[in-house]
Amino acid sequence: MRNILGKIAIRLPGLRHQILIYETLREISGVLQDVRQEVASMRKTEAIRCIENEWSSNERFSDPKRLLSFAAQVNSQNGEDGMIAEIFRRIGSESKCFVEIGLQDGRESNTAFLVACGWTGYWIDGGTAMKQTIEHRDDITPNDLKTITAMVTRENATELFTAAGIPTEFDFLSLDIDQNTYYVWEALAAYRPRVVAIEYNATVPPYIDWKANYSPTRTWDGTQNYGASLKALELLGHQQGYRLVGCDFTGTNAFFVREDLAGDHFLPPYTAENHYEPSRYPLIHHRSHRREILDRPAN
Question: With a threshold of 0.90, does the pTM exceed it?
Answer without folding.
Answer: no
